[in-house]
Design a protein that fits this description.
The protein has about 210 residues and is of the alpha/beta class. The chain is built from 7 helices and 13 strands.
């Protein structure tokens, strides 16, 4: 199935000028084209269309993979443990089985997707955690040292969009259709507001997060 994703502005992430009124054409799990929306729609009149407000960008990398997924517990809403990640001594007091780690990681991954994240940096040593990540199509990228600052879900805190991008949009190369959309007017506004403005995250053609 062909799907056109369009936004007010398409940011390529490799230095090319952004494309106002742009759109990407997705075929299966791959990019097929990027053009002005009207041209793509005219060339592919039967394609499904998804319209997103604001800016469409490449997917982002969160630098705190192990910290967020293996050194934090994300409580089930049915538990009387609050809604924030549990770390440190409080975490050591929990009975963390493989099944519980896997469920925690799945909830953590959903929060990452809600910030336009499509990959994390850092090796994951817990099989249940790694499985939760890989099942949605996310990847874990190599890192050579622990990143500075406090771990958090927003990869744009203390980083520019260019620093947070996994790979630029390469829609003419048959590359994986992986990207995110943010409800902001431009790249500068996205850097200022952060990735909480995410309205959609797509990995390999699959819409895995959509703000309701």
């Amino acid at each position: 199935m062909l799907t056109i994703h369009t936004a007010d502005l398409v940011v390529f992430g490799d230095g090319r000028p952004s494309l106002p009124g742009g759109a990407v054409l997705v075929e299966g799990r791959e990019f097929a084209a990027v053009e002005v929306y009207e041209d793509l729609a005219a060339a592919h009149p039967t394609a499904r269309v998804r319209r997103w407000p604001g800016v469409l960008t490449p997917g982002l990398v969160n630098p705190y993979g192990p910290e967020l997924l293996e050194r934090s517990y994300h409580p089930d809403p049915r538990e009387d443990l609050g809604s924030e990640p549990i770390t440190g001594e409080a975490l050591s007091g929990l009975d963390m089985t493989d099944a519980r780690w896997g469920a925690s990681a799945r909830r953590g991954v959903q929060r990452l997707l809600a910030h336009g994240v499509v990959a994390v940096a850092g090796d994951l040593q817990t099989p249940a955690v790694a499985d939760a990540l890989y099942r949605v199509g996310m990847t874990s990228e190599e890192r050579f040292e622990a990143p500075p600052g406090r771990p958090g879900f927003d990869p744009l805190i203390g980083r520019s969009l260019a620093e947070a991008i996994l790979t630029p949009l390469l829609p003419h190369m048959g590359s994986d259709a992986t990207f995110a959309a943010f409800d902001v007017p431009d790249e500068a506004a996205l850097t200022k507001s952060g990735a909480t403005a995410c309205v959609a995250t797509v990995i390999k053609g699959r819409l895995l997060h959509r703000r309701r």
